């Protein structure tokens, strides 16, 4: 993997066109949107999306792009609301993303047109994690069955490329009953009754968010571990900037192989 793949926006755009447009991507833990009206927004691989639970209890993931002029509808990272009102000109949507109303000066001519609703993405929930996809991958995601009770989520902002974070999570492990990697953005660690789901969120090419979802334990017990991951990843990013390669463990090699396939696919189509 060349150093520019860790430090330049071109690689991120290629990843956005290929794997982030085609794979199931994790958004959050289902417990983060536990109640009707709960929402959580994020930029994942360059795509602005938000997840929301409606009044019937269903969770869906929607594009965070207003149907009026394509601006961001949800500005807050998370919260609870009755409806979503775009702050730019006031178009309003319900908890399922359906167009409700707009002020008269900017109201659409045909208020019943289906293209007024926010774009709803393929959504799937597996082992308490909400996934979405911009395409329709053949297989729904799976994490190997139900986990212990959801304890909470730690959020860690890391100044590194998302691949540095994935490599670090994979480097010291081999697949086993206690560790599994779920391409492209999840690693699951089990220790007795406790399961940690590490979710890598590629925010921009040099800003990564790590969501540490804790099942069967309190999240505060894992704060030190998350802080260590941040420290190590930021040091590893400096190494990549200097051209030092990642540790070539079997899982990191497998990760690079799938990335190489994605880059080749992008070259073939652009
Ligand atoms: S862009 Fe949302 S109301 Fe105009």
Descriptors for this entry?
270 residues; five-stranded antiparallel sheet; 24% helix; binds FE2/S2 (inorganic) cluster
Q: Over the alpha carbons, how many angstroms does the gyration radius reach?
A: 19 Å
Low-pLDDT runs of 5+ residues are none
**What is bound: which ligands?**
FE2/S2 (inorganic) cluster
Q: Could you describe the largest sheet, including whether it forms a barrel?
A: 7 strands, antiparallel
With strands numbered from the N-terminus, the spatial order across the biggest sheet is 1-10-9-4-3-2-5
* SS content category: alpha+beta
Query: DSSP strand (E) fraction?
Result: 25-35%
For the secondary structure, the number of strands is: 15
Order of helices and strands: HHHEEEEEEEEEEEHEEEEHH
Q: What is the straight-line distance between the termini? A: 20 Å
Write the layout of secondary structure elements.
Elements: H1 4-7, H2 9-17, H3 19-22, E1 25-29, E2 38-44, E3 47-53, E4 59-63, E5 78-80, E6 84-85, E7 92-93, E8 99-101, E9 120-126, E10 129-133, E11 150-158, H4 162-171, E12 179-182, E13 186-191, E14 194-204, E15 207-215, H5 223-241, H6 250-269
Antiparallel strand pairs: 1-10, 2-3, 2-5, 3-4, 4-9, 6-7, 7-8, 9-10, 11-15, 12-13, 13-14, 14-15
Bound molecules: FE2/S2 (inorganic) cluster.
Account of the 3D structure:
The protein is α+β, with helices and mostly antiparallel strands and 270 residues long. It has six helices and 15 strands. A seven-stranded antiparallel β-sheet has the order 1-10-9-4-3-2-5. Strands 11-15-14-13-12 form a five-stranded antiparallel β-sheet, covered by helices on one side. Helix 2 (9-17) packs across helix 6 (250-269), helix 4 packs across helix 5 (223-241) and helix 4 runs antiparallel to helix 6. The longest helix is centred in the last third of the chain and has 20 residues, at 250-269. The model has no long low-confidence stretch (mean pLDDT 94). The structure holds FE2/S2 (inorganic) cluster (FES).
């Amino acid at each position: 993997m060349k150093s520019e793949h860790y430090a330049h926006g071109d690689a991120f755009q290629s990843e956005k066109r290929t794997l982030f447009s085609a794979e199931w991507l994790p958004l959050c833990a289902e417990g983060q949107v536990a109640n009707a009206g709960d929402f959580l927004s994020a930029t994942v691989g360059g795509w602005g999306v938000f997840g929301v639970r409606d009044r019937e209890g269903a969770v869906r993931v929607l594009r965070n792009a207003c149907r009026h002029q394509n601006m961001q509808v949800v500005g807050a990272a998370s919260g609870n609301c009755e409806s979503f009102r775009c702050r730019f000109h006031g178009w309003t949507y319900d908890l399922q993303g359906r167009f409700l109303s707009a002020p008269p000066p900017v109201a659409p001519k045909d208020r019943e047109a289906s293209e007024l609703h926010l774009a709803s993405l393929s959504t799937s929930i597996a082992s308490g994690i909400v996934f979405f996809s911009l395409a329709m991958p053949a297989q729904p995601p799976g994490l190997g069955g139900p986990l212990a009770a959801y304890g909470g989520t730690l959020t860690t902002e890391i100044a590194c490329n998302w691949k540095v974070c994935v490599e670090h999570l994979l480097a010291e492990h081999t697949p086993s009953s206690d560790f599994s990697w779920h391409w492209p953005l999840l690693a699951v660690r089990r220790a007795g009754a406790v399961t940690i789901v590490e979710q890598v969120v590629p925010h921009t090419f040099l800003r990564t968010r790590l969501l540490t979802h804790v099942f069967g334990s309190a999240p505060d017990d894992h704060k030190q571990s998350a802080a260590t991951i941040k420290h190590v990843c930021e040091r590893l990013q400096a190494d990549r900037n200097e051209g030092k390669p990642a540790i070539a463990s079997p899982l990191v090699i497998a990760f690079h192989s799938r990335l190489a396939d994605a880059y080749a696919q992008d070259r073939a189509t652009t």
